[in-house]
Design brief:
Length: 513
């Protein structure tokens, strides 16, 4: 049965081959050639279709990657031509490769960065608590001594020439190293992989960051005003805007676009700038981290934008500050000064600052635990012996709190209604059981935009995207693992703040002033 079935299946094939053998040689050759041509045509068409499909996939992947690190949910449509013409938040990518930052809700291990940047493998060294604290104190002491030595070196230099002015080319504090050559290269330390920077950074912010991080240093000067600490200012080769140059002529401090160099221990200034922009407050000056071969042994230093409008009467006259005691500040909060643009009564005791500015300042200072503005005497938490308020004896003034003077309340000379957050020295090592709630005392409203960011659970994602732009700061904090630890602290404080808002019935309102 099986043999007969196989015979019937093979019978057509055998009959065809028998007929093919009886054909003349010329006809057989023609049939074979026709079959080969048909087969060749089929193969070529299949190869062409595969190659076209692969090209389409490659183009699609290229466009998707060109959108870079910041996927702003614009779909697959190209950038709007209007944005290209106006230049609104449109930047030129500084890197061609792409780095992806992955987020995990529960991180058992530090998240990895895929791309060309490979973090160095370092062995963990176990240290006791006392040894770790001693090391930290010794390191801080070394940095402070370096800063003092730098100032003395600048003083010796200035005694030879013009007062307070040093020519960068003749500066020989430390020989030029590879860190100086890095600033002259075409690769910027501000990493932007997309045509658009994060939406919370304006084009002016990106421009200022690139200047502070990459501008060639032409001149440096150390200037002092009154009893305040002296500032180390550098002047870059690119000129500033017309407005900045106008204010610079008033101060006689900077002839073009300049930056202010701080000590390496003040790296919180960079984190504070990005946190301010992510929350939508926009009250800090742009800040980046940068290495100078002739300062602090090449360690990364925070560099802030120089703003001469903070000195309306000249640098010698000092900053444009608001004089208020704690009692007067609490009274102004109750009166809601300048709310709805209504002028306060002459005898009300109101300052020139708008009521909403105090809410923004309190929220910002609470997340970073900055006490040098609203709580100079450290009355709202348990200070340590090494804190400035204890060393200078201010903590003893807490018995008479109403007469404690607020400090570092600064505004621009032409804009007295809005504050400028400077000297943003925050503390990440303060536990949740020792937070300074005095910073929130008297606050009845908070800005809706900032609170919505805290509630949306996207604070980590946005801070990672924003801080990643500053390559020097990112690497100085230990990469992704170190940045995650800092954000962990801010997220815990944000959770405490949201609980405080619900418990005290604080209103969350729009503050567009």
């Amino acid at each position: 049965m099986g043999k007969s079935r196989s015979h019937w299946l093979c019978f057509p094939f055998l009959k065809l081959t028998g007929s093919f053998r009886r054909f003349p040689l010329s006809r057989r050759s023609l049939i074979i050639a026709s079959v080969c041509v048909v087969y060749l045509f089929f193969v070529v068409s299949q190869v062409g279709y595969t190659q076209q499909h692969r090209d389409r996939r490659t183009d699609k992947d290229k466009y998707r990657h060109a959108r870079g690190l910041y996927n702003l949910d614009f779909g697959d449509a190209p950038p709007d031509s209007k944005d290209l013409q106006t230049g609104a938040n449109f930047v030129v990518p500084t890197r061609s490769n792409v780095v992806y930052i992955t987020l995990k809700s529960k991180r058992q291990k530090p998240a990895n960065i895929r791309g060309t940047i490979r973090p160095k493998l370092r062995r963990k060294v176990r240290r006791s608590k006392s040894a770790s604290s001693d090391f930290t104190q010794n390191k801080l002491g070394t940095l402070e001594r370096d800063a003092d030595q730098t100032k003395r070196n600048f003083a010796r230099k200035t005694s030879r020439g013009e007062p307070g002015d040093v020519d960068y080319k003749t500066l020989d504090i430390i020989p030029q190293s590879h860190t100086d050559a890095h600033t002259d290269s075409h690769v910027s330390s501000i990493r932007i992989y997309s045509q658009r920077a994060p939406p919370w950074l304006s084009p002016q912010d990106v421009k200022a960051m690139r200047f502070l991080a990459d501008a060639k240093v032409l001149r440096m000067k150390e200037v002092s005003h009154g009893d305040s600490p002296s500032l180390l200012i550098f002047e870059g080769e690119s000129g500033g805007s017309a407005t900045n140059q106008k204010h610079s002529k008033l101060s006689n401090t900077c002839g073009g676009q300049c930056g202010v160099i701080s000590s390496p221990v003040d790296t919180t200034e960079v984190f504070a700038f990005h946190l301010d922009r992510v929350l939508g407050l926009n009250r800090t000056l742009p800040a980046v981290s940068r290495k100078f071969g002739f300062l602090h042994d090449g360690q990364p230093c925070p560099v802030m934008s120089w703003d001469a409008s903070l000195y309306p009467e000249g640098f010698a006259a000092g900053l444009s500050t608001v004089r208020l005691t704690w009692g007067e500040y609490q009274s102004s909060l109750k009166q809601r000064c300048w709310h709805k643009n209504s002028s306060p009564k002459p005898d009300s005791g109101c300052s020139t600052v708008h009521h909403y500015e105090w809410s923004k300042l309190a929220l910002f200072d609470f997340l970073l635990q900055i006490y040098n503005r609203l709580d100079r005497s450290c009355c709202g938490f348990r200070p340590r012996r090494e804190d400035v308020c204890v060393e200078l004896g201010h903590h003893a003034d807490c018995g008479d709190q109403n007469h404690i003077q607020l400090t570092n309340i600064i505004h621009r000379g032409h804009d007295p209604r809005h504050l400028v957050f400077t000297n943003n020295k925050g503390f990440f090592d303060r536990n949740e059981d020792n937070l300074d709630f005095r910073l929130l005392e008297g606050i009845k409203e908070l800005p809706e935009q900032a609170v919505s960011v805290l509630k949306s659970r996207r604070l980590r994602e946005k801070l990672l995207q924003s801080l990643f732009l500053d390559q020097t700061y990112w690497e100085s904090q230990g990469g992704r693992q170190g940045i995650d630890k800092l954000i962990d602290v801010i997220e815990r404080r944000a959770s405490v703040l949201l609980t405080y808002i619900n418990a005290h019935g604080i209103k969350v309102i729009t503050m567009n002033v």
